């Protein structure tokens, strides 16, 4: 059974204080690892897809990396508008994804 | 204007009543998904469909039913057999092994 564990559950940062969110996974035959951002009361918004170990993707203050067992979402010099829940998901086959419980990030000005 | 529409945004029902949640897409994606999200938790897959007239159970299908008669539509019925139906329901679409795109969600409250 595919499993995704995200840590920490919650993260509070000061504006400008860089940090990382972790996504550990166990899956048979990874086809893709996805990061999404979810604002309260809204549907998740796609951020990145990573397909193989060593791959990195960047978008503004966010950078996602992937190893054979985990992925990191690095946030550089965060701003209050980066506050959200960040969800990680893995896809092993049949177009079906397994999601983690998310990390809720709060960035204080 | 491409996207995924879920209606209504808020839905209230009495215990024992069936209720159908709507999901419509104009992204021309083959695959559609229904997830349930409870407070502080991630998404759990209820049902998914990779092609018209075919669908598969996800991890928590008990008490739910779906149909996929058109590519654009994937309605979810929450039946009275679902023990804890109050939750935030999300519909998504996708293609193959690529990312999914989510609708705005329907918050269902059953009392």
Structural class by sheet pairing and helices of chain A: mainly beta
The count of DSSP E runs of length 2 or more, i.e. the number of strands of chain A, is 11
State the separation between the terminal residues of chain B, measured CA to CA. 36 Å
| Residue share in helix of chain A | under 10%
Q: What is the CATH topology classification name of chain A?
A: Immunoglobulin-like
Q: For the record, give the distance between the C-alpha atoms at the N and C termini of chain A, rounded to a whole number.
A: 41 Å
Helix content of chain B: under 10%
Radius of gyration over C-alpha positions of chain A, nearest whole angstrom: 13 Å
What is the CATH C level class of chain A, in words? Answer: Mainly Beta
Looking at the structure, what is the overall shape of chain B? globular
| Main sheet attributes: strand count, strand direction, barrel closure of chain B | 7 strands, mixed
* Number of alpha- plus pi-helical segments of chain B: 0
Q: Overall mean pLDDT score of chain A?
A: 95
Oligomer: heterodimer
Strand content of chain B: over 45%
Fraction of residues in β-strands of chain A: over 45%
N-to-C series of helices and strands of chain A = EEEEEEEEEEE
Strand element count of chain B: 11
| Helix and strand sequence of chain B | EEEEEEEEEEE
Classified in CATH, the superfamily of chain A is Immunoglobulins
Q: By helix and strand content of chain B, what is the structural category?
A: mainly beta
């Amino acid at each position: 059974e595919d499993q995704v564990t995200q840590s920490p559950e919650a993260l509070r940062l000061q504006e400008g204080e860089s940090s990382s969110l972790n996504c550990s996974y166990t899956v048979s035959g990874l086809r893709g690892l996805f990061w999404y951002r979810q604002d309260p009361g809204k549907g998740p918004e796609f951020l990145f897809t990573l397909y193989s170990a060593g791959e990195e993707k960047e978008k503004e203050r966010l950078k996602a990396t992937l190893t054979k067992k985990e992925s990191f979402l690095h946030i550089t010099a965060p701003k209050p508008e980066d506050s959200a829940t960040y969800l990680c998901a893995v896809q092993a086959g049949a177009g079906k994804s397994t999601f983690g419980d998310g990390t809720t990030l709060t960035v204080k000005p | 204007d491409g996207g995924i529409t879920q209606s209504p945004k808020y839905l209230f029902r009495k215990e024992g009543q069936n209720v159908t949640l709507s999901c419509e897409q104009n992204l021309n994606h083959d695959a559609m998904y229904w997830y349930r999200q409870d407070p502080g938790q991630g998404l759990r897959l209820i049902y998914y469909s990779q092609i018209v007239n075919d669908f598969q159970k996800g991890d928590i299908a008990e008490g739910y039913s779906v149909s996929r008669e058109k590519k654009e539509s994937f309605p979810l019925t929450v039946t009275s057999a679902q023990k804890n139906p109050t939750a935030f329901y999300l519909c998504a679409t996708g293609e193959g092994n690529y990312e999914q795109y989510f609708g705005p969600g329907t918050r269902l409250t059953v009392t």
